[in-house]
Every structure is written in structure tokens, then in C-alpha cells.
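Friendly challenge for the regulars: who can give me the C-alpha cells for this chain first? No prize, just bragging rights.
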Amino acid sequence: MAITKERTEEIVIGDLQEAQHLFERDSSYLKIIGEHYGADISGRGNMIRIKGEEEAVENSLHVIARIRHMIASRIRLSERQVRLVMSLIDQGKENLLQEMEDDIINFTKNGAPIRPRTLGQKLYVDTIRRNSITFGIGPAGTGKTYLAVALAAFALRNHDVQRIILVRPAVEAGEKLGFLPGDMQEKVNPYLRPLFDGLMDMFGPEEFTRLQQKGQIEVAPLAYMRGRTLEKSFVILDEAQNTTVEQIKMFLTRLGFRSKMIVNGDVT
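First reply, four minutes later:
Bragging rights claimed.
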């Protein structure tokens, strides 16, 4: 008969802000870890108490230590993030977590680092860096557009490209908007708002406006791309599922020297 050894460990969190991150959402992160490893984990005040079998407590301590390191690195926690940490540690792939933490894509205007938050995002970012054309496929909210914009802003600041070109098919979302007043730029702005929001985060409103006026950030509906050759540009086509076969072929053949193209869409 196997004899299991019980163990109890207590962790004191010295930083109140770190404790708030760990215990937020009614300590759900600690509950997820406890349920995964079969340990009893509770958090109160600035103390975490772990009770269970030796291996369960050891694994829980390992995950909590990694999560605390992420908090110290200003990485936002989420339930998905906690489950990813446990999965990679269980598979012996903790080095991938470190690679994700070390990979700072860019900084926002406020100085916050932008990193890939999942393995899929890490693969996406590395693929863009290595290739001239990248297709990003995934549902809304998976970070395709934001990460592409962050990489584009970095390339422009680093003088790897001379301009950023934002492209989107002008397709209405289920309702007829009718006539839109203004020049072409003002007409297409509503369709490109998600791309603008990302660039505003990187550059701030003043620099973003200045770069637009200098032509270093250009906005164009897909229909206006015909006949152009895009040299030394970082080109992002968003919502590509709304394009026709002819449009996507036309777009891909615009690629010029020292340029990158990102084609993002949701096949569902």
C-alpha cells in the first residue's frame, strides 16, 4: 500500500499590488491551480496557503512562482494565461514561457511593454518577422490586428520600412450606412477604426496625426490598391474574409521591394 505524504506550505506576498493581482476575481487563479493539481490552495490578506500531497504542493508552488514572475514583468494575468502556464510546465516546456516573456514587440506611448500572450501569438509574431507575407487566421479578439500594428510601428520607428499602409475592404456590417459625408479619408475612417486604435496606442494622437500628414501612415480601401507597387512598406490587410478572390490576388501582387504584408481574417 502506497503511503502519501501530506505537506503544507505558506507563501507571504510582500507587495500588496502583487497580492491583489493574484487574489483578484475572488482568488479564481488559485482555485484553478488547486483544482488542476489536486491541492487545497487558499489566499487571504497577503498570504497563500497550499496543502496537499507532496507532488501536488510542489507543482502548485512552481506555477505560483512563475505567475509571480509574470506579474513582476508587468504581464497581465487571465484564466487562459494561468492554464497555459500549467500546461507548459506539465509538458516540460517552461522555456517557451520565458521566450514569450522576453519577447517585447514594442512599447505603447505610455511605456507599457507589448508581448505575445499565448503560444499562437508568439508563433504569429515570429512568422511575421521571418516572412514577407503572413496570413493570420483567427476569430475576433485574438490579437491579430493589434500585434500586426505593434510590429508595423516598431519597423517604422526602426527605419526598416518607410511607411505603414492600412488596408481594409469597405464592407458594411449588416446594415446600410448610406451616404457618408467628407473626403475619401473621412469616409473610410469608420472602417479602419481598429487599426487606428492600435496605432494611437503606439504613437499617441499627435505623432499619429503628424505621420499621417507626412504620408508615413497611409489609409486605403482595398479597391484603391489596384495598379500600385508598395515599396519599403509594412502593409496590413484587415478583415480579409470580406474580400473576393480577384481582390486578394490583386492585393498580393502589389508587394514590392523590402516590404511586408499581413493578411488577417476570420475564416468562420
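DSSP finds nine helices and ten strands in the chain. Residues 113-265 form a domain with the Rossmann fold fold (CATH 3.40.50.300). Your move, everyone else.
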